[in-house]
Design goal:
Number of helices: 12
Number of strands: 2
Oligomer: single chain
Shape: globular
Radius of gyration: 19 Å
Strand order of the largest sheet: 1-2
Largest sheet: 2 strands, antiparallel
Distance between the termini: 17 Å
Order of helices and strands: HEHHHHHEHHHHHH
Structural class: mainly alpha
């Protein structure tokens, strides 16, 4: 059994939750190709939850994968490497592609950075904490501001224009991800429940939209300007409830023989 890396398990769990917070935030502005925020409350809290915190979610998954996979073990061929990856990733991916295609009808850049950190970055914990905090805050503030600046309440615009600084390879998102990853590397131990939850995150990531859609509809109740809860609370509640539903469902599926072909 491979020894688990505590901070990596923490990243998997937090990044999985942040993905759900991102998609919870999108319920308050993203209407497809054209987006609009309806009031200052939505403008502010989408900027905070999706901009400051959420943008690092997918990049964190990418940097963790790269951190664990490079450099490859001596003697490992490219065919062996991709064979193992495909067996692990493709069956669950295909399974959920089919589900996403069928169920709605029924109902309705980081590789190099990771290598550098693992092989060349020899900073002590104090420096990682200070540099990591600075990078996370500076990058996150700019990312949050970029949405707040563009998303003028009542004004419709193309979604990419509203999210102009939110691409995963923009310097601000890269800086924020780098800072967050450095902070996570300071974690030395993880409790058993984090280790257990980390093993479920791929399946949780794949299925979360199923739960999030219904939970968001319930809390928003057709009016993004006046949801059941204040927006500052509605976004994290939607994300957290989605996370909990996915965790329980994925855990139950993991008890079924052959479940690795469904949830990884």
């Amino acid at each position: 059994m491979k020894e688990r890396i505590a901070f990596v398990d923490y990243i998997r769990v937090i990044a999985c939750l942040l993905v759900m917070v991102v998609h919870a935030s999108e319920q308050f502005y993203n209407m497809g190709p054209i987006s609009q925020v309806v009031n200052e409350d939505n403008r502010l809290w989408v900027s905070v939850y999706d901009g400051f915190f959420g943008r690092i979610s997918v990049p964190l998954f990418m940097i963790v994968s790269a951190f664990l996979l490079v450099p490859m073990k001596a003697g490992t061929t490219m065919s062996q490497f991709y064979h193992r990856r495909f067996l692990r990733i493709l069956p669950p991916f295909i399974c959920f592609l089919v589900l996403y295609a069928l169920l709605p009808a029924t109902w309705g850049g980081y590789l190099v950075l990771a290598h550098y950190i693992r092989v060349h970055l020899k900073w002590d914990q104090r420096k990682r904490l200070s540099v990591g905090t600075s990078c996370f805050v500076i990058g996150g503030l700019f990312t949050a501001w970029s949405f707040w600046w563009k998303a003028v309440p009542g004004m419709q615009m193309e979604t990419p224009m509203m999210e102009w600084a939110w691409e995963f390879c923009t310097p601000n998102v890269l800086l924020t991800t780098f800072g967050a990853f450095l902070l996570f590397t300071c974690i030395q131990k993880a409790p058993r429940w984090i280790n257990s939850l980390a093993k479920l995150t791929f399946g949780m990531y794949l299925m979360h939209i199923f739960f999030l859609t219904f939970i968001a509809e319930w809390i928003i109740s057709g009016d993004v300007a006046h949801p059941l809860l204040p927006v500052w609370l509605a976004i994290p509640v939607i994300g957290l409830l989605t996370f909990l539903c996915c965790a329980v469902t994925t855990k139950l599926i993991s008890l079924i023989p052959g479940s690795k072909y469904i949830i990884g």
